[in-house]
Design goal:
By secondary structure, the chain is mainly alpha-helical. Helices cover 68% and strands 3% of the residues. The chain has a two-stranded antiparallel sheet with strand order 1-2.
Length: 470
């Protein structure tokens, strides 16, 4: 970031200090967490075939790239803080945008932060047993329910608070930590893949072997769900578009190239998994990356990989906290959320109140232990919003054909349609596989309807230090 970034303020009071490097690393950092070090084992259990596993990762990556290309047009068109909230509002009205922001605050983003943080605590526990999720600190019976807090949950809460404090004191500080951790993660995967290529692989890669005698379509659907959720987070930079220098160029560059980097890394590391462990071994292991590293480089190699996963979880948490807090700022400015969250810190130029409000809920979810159950409830609703956001490109082309578009999605309309179709198939699969959770998720979303009506009837007063909108 340039030295004069602190003087480049938007009408919202934020700093336009993120460049192409920052946007690219934010994309990578928002995606690579713990999933890639675990998920292939889940896929192998339902789809035991080398070629099909690798194909799913590539197809999932191409579908994600289609989404990145699509969202890049929207981000360049509306280069403000808020991302998907802004795009949904412009295409379908404030109510639809609000429902997305409501779901983000209630569960999607806060629950996601809690889940990543507890995963960090779990890996930290392998090095510091006091912070293990198996180390129960206390258990308190509350009626028929028992509230237990483990060392891993405490570690999760501490990690959330520390990274929120870093992001609170400035964009430069938050992006600096995030960039460093993203580089470490990329370096860890590249080092592992590079060293593994020089090792003698114990398994032969059988890409064209006969297909297993299973329900192939169902297995592909379940596997693709796992793949796409491991790619999830690629849209993170769109929420921080209001803090990018020249966002019309910076955002598309960061989204597209960051996604390409992740696709390449994911394909390479899966090739190593498949060449190192048998399909049976992959399906049985809960931590495939550590098992593969141990098989190739011994116990110390496995420990180093465990450390890399720990850093990866911490880095993904850092990226998630940075971008997700930007959603509530425009909602509050539009008078459909707590107006206090519209305030930007007069010295640090960060959405401080949004950061801490989100963190408070995430810490509560992490300590309560209910985040995993809540998070499964909103998968269905979250996918619906992605379909609606991709559709917003087409809707806005029709509603506002004469508006200047600094970036136009490559392959329009087929690339957005491809992303919509792929996501729709995923929605159908989620509805079939998890019908109860999907309906509960929709019910949580419906709870936002009376909240929206209340805010519309009782518009909150402006925050004391809220900048005047042009």
């Amino acid at each position: 970031m340039s030295s004069d970034s602190n003087r480049r303020l938007t009408s919202e009071g934020l700093v336009r200090g993120l460049g192409r490097w920052d946007a690219t690393m934010l994309t990578v950092g928002s995606v690579i967490g713990t999933g890639i070090f675990i998920t292939t084992a889940d896929i192998a259990r339902v789809l035991p075939h080398h070629g099909m596993i690798l194909l799913l990762w590539i197809v999932g990556g191409l579908l994600t790239l289609a989404g990145a290309l699509t969202y890049a047009e929207l981000g360049a068109l509306y280069p403000h803080a808020g991302g998907m909230y802004i795009y949904l509002k412009e295409a379908y009205g404030t109510f639809v945008g609000f429902l997305y922001g409501w779901a983000c605050f209630l569960v999607i983003m806060s629950g996601g932060i809690a889940a990543i943080a507890v995963a960090f605590g779990e890996y930290l526990g392998s090095f510091m047993p006091a912070f293990s999720t198996r180390n129960v600190l206390f258990s308190l019976p509350i009626g028929s329910w028992s509230w237990s807090v483990s060392g891993g949950q405490v570690a999760a809460a501490i990690a959330i608070l520390v990274l929120t404090a870093v992001n609170y004191v400035g964009l430069r500080e938050g992006a600096g930590v995030q960039n460093f951790l993203a580089v470490v993660r990329i370096g860890s995967i590249v080092a592992f893949v590079g060293l593994a290529f020089f090792a003698d692989p114990p398994e032969a890669l059988s890409l064209a072997s006969p297909l297993p005698d299973i329900g192939l379509l169902s297995a592909i659907g379940i596997g693709m769900v796992a793949v796409l959720w491991t790619y999830d987070g690629w849209y993170g930079p769109t929420f921080s578009a209001g803090e990018m220098r020249n966002p019309a160029r910076t955002l598309p560059f960061g989204l597209i190239w960051g996604t390409v980097i992740v696709i390449v890394l994911y394909a390479l590391i899966n090739i190593i998994y498949l060449q190192t462990l048998s399909l049976d071994e992959i399906a049985r292991t809960p931590r495939i990356a550590e098992s593969a590293a141990t098989a190739l480089f011994g116990v110390n190699g496995g420990r180093l990989m465990s450390l890399a996963v720990l850093v990866s979880a911490f880095g993904c948490l850092s990226a998630s906290i940075l971008y997700s807090s930007r959603i509530y700022l425009p909602m509050a400015r539009d008078g459909v959320f707590f107006r206090g969250l519209a305030a930007v810190h007069p010295r640090y130029h960060t959405p401080g109140r949004s950061l801490w409000a989100q963190t408070l809920l995430a810490v509560v979810l992490a300590l309560s232990g209910t985040y995993e159950q809540l998070y499964t409830y909103v998968i269905f609703a979250s996918l619906l919003f992605h379909v609606a956001t991709a559709g917003a490109v087409i809707v806005l082309r029709v509603k506002k054909p004469d508006v200047e578009r600094p970036y136009r999605v490559f392959g329009y309309p087929w690339v957005p349609i491809l992303f919509i179709l792929g996501s729709t198939l995923l929605i159908a699969n989620t509805l079939v596989e998890k019908p109860v959770e999907s309906l509960i998720g929709l019910a949580l979303l419906a709870a936002g309807v009376p909240a929206y009506a209340w805010w519309r009837r009782h518009p909150p007063e402006a925050a004391p230090n809220e900048p005047t909108q042009p």
